[in-house]
Design goal:
The complex is a heterodimer of chains A (about 850) and B (about 300). Chain A is mostly beta strands and about 850 residues long. In chain A, about 15% of the residues lie in helices and about 35% in strands. In chain A, the strands form twelve sheets. Chain A has a six-stranded mixed β-sheet, sandwiched between helices. In chain A, helix 1 crosses helix 6, helix 3 crosses helix 6 and helix 10 runs antiparallel to helix 12. The longest helix of chain A is centred in the first third of the chain and has 19 residues. The radius of gyration of chain A is 39 Å and the shape is elongated. In chain A, about 45% of the residues are buried. Chain B has a six-stranded antiparallel β-sheet, with no helix packed on it. The longest helix of chain B is centred in the N-terminal third of the chain and has 17 residues. The chains are: A mainly beta (about 850), B mainly beta (about 300). At the A-B interface, helix 2 of A face strand 21 of B.
Chain lengths: ~850, ~300
């Protein structure tokens, strides 16, 4: 360092007294620790705001004292006892007779976002400082700090009154400014959680420069220009090598590697060395020469791995000069591929269809040129990324490779490293892909348009293979209508095991939703299985939160499911009686309990039917409908209610559908009742269909209030029964037509012609377009399908259809829409079919009607 | 010896646990309407000085009549206003000189009989310390001083890391404990045999008139003598930017007992004692006066 004496200082009559408050202290809970390599959390040698604040404070004190100011400082150590209370600092400042007060801090966002700028705060509302001139003092300092070009600023400085800046503090303001009689301010000199800045704040010279700039701010405030010394500092970086610090955000030149352990020599214009300093090994590249006489100097930088560089710099009195260096690395040998992936030879197992191609080089490469030297046959659209400061190139296909295909990758000799030397020989590798391309989704809850109980919701993704259990929370996003993320109960998340026939993740939602509002489940295409095979595309499901326990004032409660001991088995298949368990649960919607049913899902299919005195005694009129509150577990078991007309001629099944949902849901059963008959409930049926894949080995569902009510005509075109006609109703129709999804079968035949067809979709489109808000009343009248009778249900041998006219034939479909059997007569022999539920289509003349039937042996 | 020590410790525990403190009255002052800070009771406990949150201006509340008198509207007047033994009020105001932007401080006296303030120490740059004694007071400025009498009886003030004690005109300076940042809030006990002050980084220290440490009461602030045996203080914490808790404590001057007069969450602060009363304010300026019953 150039030694200087303050002999030329022309003092004012009274020199100011400055009170310096290096903020925080003590490495305690009200200090700020940022963990950076190589330090661990809590290591006092690592980054703490109290450390850098104190370094700045010392530098400021020394600079001011050299200029002739008098100073007080609130701490000179960094232990807990030195961390003075705010009111103590204010009282000490006032007692000291200070003219100005600097509280030295650095900032943090407190959120994942990163930025780096300067903030100056004074007491009072913005523009109206409580102590006059505090805003002027703040401005003078901010202007001096902003000139720091060794930092990377994301925006210009900000100045505010603390009442305005902290509106929630009710004008209490910053504690060190409250009651402070000096012209006072608090500086947040930079953002210490912006990691490149964190490393800079570890550098003594960098902190010193901020302290020096503080002193220049004081000079400017008092109008002093007499000191006659200047300083020069700068940042030394690699001219092209990218800086990688985990996933930290970096801006501008901070994206290049700082050069550590460089020797920086200050010379006069005749190359005579005057001073030498060094960049440290704290990944910041900072150097500084302090207290220089004004003039022009040369600064020479040397580092063993870089070509040296010399620059001229002009130093002005009472100013900070900055001179940054971008050094070129010394690269004396040509680039080589020293490692690569995949390593595949003929006869090896084929590779997954999204395997990246990775090259590792002996030098950091020229990325653009090297990417152009990359070729893959057959051609594949893909993208490149670089790691390890451009030593590693990664090619990933935008989409999966073709299956069962041999690929050849070539890196030609135009590839070059950062020094411009080229690859000596082309490099080639080959690999063959496997048969599997994408992760296949079996099911997702909520489905598009689902009503989901607002409380304690659960979301689930089921796939054809085991999911990668790492990092899935950032790939499964649940957001409200404003895009805010809902939080998950991560501790109770369930995931698939190797023994499961499919992969799944089941996540309880911790945040209660708002009934009536729309939510969005987004599963990103990056979601992958254990082999890294990902989804073909991002999946977005919109659904609506509802209150499944909403009171139904027009309905009568038949059974409240409060006492499990009142239920008795009616019939069961072999797997049912021994293993099905009924018990009460306190997870309920009404009363104090619900009925919990644990049902083992046999691969051979099965069923369990039960009743209670309240259920047996209830009567259902033909113009009534039944509704159940069901707590689903996505087990895909069927819930039905078996009815028998009091004249024993009609045995309709009220179908509550498959349990393809989680949580509570209010479900109205589908089934055709004769309006002229009265019915009794024979049983509640739970069963699983062997034709369907067994989703989970054991179902646990809950039931609450079984209701009966007058059947409502509903809204014309409202297939899903949510009270509105929307695109969801069209989707439901498509699902039925294409996939046989019969969830809304009973409401899908909108035109009442006895068949579900494109005509019904057209009607909904017209309603959505406003062409038909309400269909003619006559179209709501039952037509031919109500004249067709089907029975018995369930049946063990024949199901027979009868109608007023000629029946051309019948077709039996499973619940997935697959044709199981066809007969040209009015009956279907089901003796050879498995137990379960089916759809019987009855063709009469030019109409078709669909009927839910069951086979039970 | 060990057994004797245990017995002694047991007796100590009985002694400390035997003390019982009851708040016998609690009164909201200024009807809770006006925000008030930096309260300062006179020794009789019938008059109270107070200021605004930034110590701008100075007012006096007559606790008997509830009448409020405006003493000053100047900056800094409320920060360290004191009652003098003659019943008048002394305080320091500060102002920025536009020509050099330095802060100049002026010593002021409010004459209770004439009901007006006078300049007793002309404005000067630098610190001005106010010293009140049993027989007078003084302003000790960086460049000039003022005193009501050469012999101010027993008086005390702090400057830097020194307690300055004046006994009948003889000044003694003590640094009984290390504190780089400095001392604050020195006061003499009612019987004149002890001095309490605050040492930054140490807390409240009680010394005798020879500067010998009698007790260290803990890292609390703003001590004031409730009576000759008890001190009231502030216990505040912060996150480096704003207060996170603050309460009023009653401390026995020998360090054997402390009692929370208000909870930590009350954000009560800046206690002042006089005439057997305690006045404190809150973070948002609500003044409260309490009285105590201490059973030994």
């Amino acid at each position: 360092m150039v030694a200087v004496m303050a002999t030329s200082i022309a003092r004012a009559q009274y020199m100011p007294h400055v009170y310096i408050n290096p903020g925080h202290g003590g490495h305690t809970s009200n200090d700020r620790n940022v963990v950076i390599y190589p330090f661990v959390q809590g290591d006092t040698a690592g980054y703490w705001e109290s450390n850098s604040n104190l370094k700045k404070g010392f530098a400021l004190r020394n600079c001011l004292n050299l200029k002739g100011y008098t100073t007080s400082i609130s701490r000179v150590r960094n232990d807990e006892s030195d961390d003075l209370a705010l009111s103590t600092i204010v009282a000490l400042c006032n007692q000291s007779g200070a003219d100005i007060f600097y509280s030295i801090h650095s900032n943090a966002t407190g959120v994942p976002a990163r930025r780096n700028h300067i903030l100056g705060l004074y007491r009072g509302p913005t523009g109206s400082p409580v102590v006059a001139n505090s805003d002027v003092l703040t401005l003078k300092l901010m202007q001096r700090l902003q000139v720091n070009q060794a930092a990377v600023w994301t925006s210009n400085y900000q100045i505010a009154g603390d009442f305005t800046f902290y509106p929630d503090w009710n004008n209490a303001g910053l504690g060190v400014l409250r009651g402070n009689n000096a012209v006072s301010m608090l500086s947040e000199g930079s953002f210490h959680d912006y990691i490149p800045e964190t490393y800079r704040l570890m550098n003594d010279n960098y902190c010193w420069m901020e302290g020096w700039n503080f002193s220049l701010g004081a000079d400017d405030y008092f109008g002093y220009q007499f000191f006659g010394k200047g300083c020069v500092a700068g940042n030394i970086r690699d001219n092209r090598m990218p800086r990688i610090i985990n996933d930290f955000i970096m801006f501008g030149d901070d994206n290049r590697e700082p050069v550590s352990n460089a020797t920086v020599i200050l010379m006069d214009m005749n190359d005579v060395p005057l001073d030498t300093c060094y960049t440290d090994d704290m990944y910041n590249g900072i150097y500084a020469f302090k207290m220089l006489d004004p003039g022009t100097y040369k600064i020479k930088v040397e580092q063993e791995h870089y070509y040296g560089q010399t620059k001229e710099v002009t130093v002005e009195a009472n100013h900070s000069s900055y001179c940054n260096f971008d050094l070129a690395r010394i690269r004396e040998t040509p680039p080589e591929v020293i490692n690569y992936s995949p390593v595949w030879n003929e006869g090896d197992a084929p590779l997954k269809a999204n395997t990246p191609v990775i090259f590792e080089f002996n030098w950091d490469m020229n990325t653009n040129v090297t990417e152009n030297a990359f070729h893959i046959e057959p051609a594949v659209e893909g993208h490149f990324s670089w790691e390890d400061s451009n030593y590693r190139m990664i090619f990933e296909p935008n989409d999966a490779y073709d299956i069962n295909t041999l690929y050849t990758v070539t890196l030609d000799t135009t590839a070059e490293h950062g020094g411009g030397m080229k690859l000596q020989e082309p490099f080639t590798l080959q690999f063959k892909t496997t048969y599997r391309k994408y992760l296949e989704v079996i099911d997702i809850f909520p489905h598009e348009g689902d009503p989901v109980h607002y409380k304690s919701a659960t979301i689930e993704l089921r796939t054809d293979s085991m999911l990668n259990n790492s990092y899935y929370y950032d790939k499964i996003l649940l957001t409200d209508k404003d895009g805010n993320l809902l939080t998950y109960n991560r501790r109770n998340t369930k995931t698939g095991k190797n023994t499961d026939p499919f992969g799944f993740i089941r996540i309880p939602v911790a945040t209660n939703m708002t009934p009536g509002e729309e939510y969005t489940l987004t599963i990103l295409s990056e979601m992958s299985d254990t082999a890294g095979i990902h989804l073909p595309e991002t999946i977005v499901h919109k659904f609506t939160a509802v209150d499944a326990g909403e009171e139904k004032p027009d309905a009568t409660v038949i059974e409240g499911f409060e006492d499990a001991s009142t239920f008795s088995m009616v019939t069961a298949t072999a797997n049912g009686p021994e293993n099905t368990q009924l018990s009460n649960s306190t997870d309920k919607l009404f009363g104090s309990k619900s009925l919990q049913i644990k049902y083992p899902c046999s691969p051979q299919g099965g069923q369990y039917e039960f009743t209670s005195p309240a259920i047996s005694e209830a009567t259902i009129a033909g113009n009534e409908e039944l509704s159940l509150h069901i707590f689903g577990d996505m087990s895909y078991v069927d819930i039905n209610i078996m009815l028998n007309s009091t004249d024993n001629t009609d045995h309709p099944i009220i179908d509550f559908g498959k349990i393809d949902f989680h949580g509570w849901r209010y479900v109205t059963g589908n089934g055709t009742l004769d309006p002229n008959k009265t019915y009794k409930i024979e049983s509640i049926f739970i069963g699983n269909d062997p034709e369907n894949p067994i989703m989970i080995s054991s179902a646990t569902i809950k039931l609450d209030n079984l209701l009966k009510s007058q059947k409502t005509s509903g809204v014309y075109g409202d297939v899903d029964g949510d009270g509105i006609v929307s695109s969801v109703d069209i989707t439901a129709l498509y699902n039925y037509l294409l996939n046989g999804d019969d969830t809304f079968l009973s409401t899908s035949d909108i035109d009442g012609d006895g068949i579900v067809s494109s005509v019904d979709i057209t009607i909904i489109y017209n309603i959505l377009l406003g062409n038909t808000s309400k269909a003619p009343e006559t179209e709501l009248e039952p037509t031919t399908n109500t004249t067709v009778k089907v029975g018995p249900v369930p049946s063990s041998d024949y199901i027979v259809a009868s109608a007023a006219g000629y029946i051309q034939g019948v077709e039996l479909y499973d619940l997935n829409g697959n044709l199981v059997a066809r007969n040209g007569g009015n009956y279907m022999n089901v003796e050879g079919l498995r137990n379960g539920h089916y759809i019987l289509k009855v063709y009469t003349g030019d109409t078709v009607s669909s009927h839910h039937v069951a086979v039970k042996h | 010896m060990k057994k004797a020590l245990l017995l002694l410790m047991g007796a100590w525990a009985l002694l400390t646990s035997a003390q019982q403190v009851t708040v016998t009255s609690s009164t909201t002052l200024l009807r809770g309407v006006e925000d008030a800070f930096y309260p300062c009771l006179n020794s009789a406990g019938d008059k109270l000085l107070y200021s605004d949150v930034d110590a701008h201006g100075l007012k006096m509340l007559n606790l008997t009549t509830q009448a409020v008198t405006i003493i000053s509207d100047k900056n800094g007047a409320g920060f360290n206003a004191k009652w003098s033994s003659d019943g008048n009020v002394y305080y320091v105001t500060s102002a920025i000189n536009p020509s050099d932007r330095l802060v100049y401080r002026t010593g002021m006296r409010y004459d209770m009989e004439r009901k007006m303030s006078d300049v007793v120490l002309e404005a000067q740059h630098g610190a001005v310390h106010l010293e009140t004694g049993t027989q007078g007071m003084a302003f000790n400025g960086t460049h000039r001083t003022f005193s009501t009498a050469p012999n101010r009886g027993l008086s005390v003030y702090t400057t830097g890391s020194e307690v300055v004690l004046n006994i009948n005109g003889k000044e003694s300076r003590y640094t009984p404990v290390e504190s780089y940042a400095g001392y604050l809030w020195a006061s003499v006990s009612p019987k004149g045999d002890k001095v309490a002050f605050f040492a930054a980084g140490k807390g409240i220290i009680v010394i005798n008139l020879e500067g010998k440490v009698l007790a260290e009461l803990g890292n609390y602030e703003m001590p004031c003598w409730y009576n000759n045996d008890y001190i009231v203080a502030q216990n505040a914490s912060d996150d480096g930017y704003q207060f996170t808790s603050s309460q009023i404590l009653l401390l026995k001057a020998d360090g054997t007992f402390h009692h929370e007069l208000t909870p930590k969450t009350s954000m009560t602060m800046q206690p002042s004692c006089g005439g057997g009363k305690i006045v404190y304010t809150t973070i948002d300026g609500k003044l409260t006066m309490i009285t105590l019953d201490i059973k030994e």
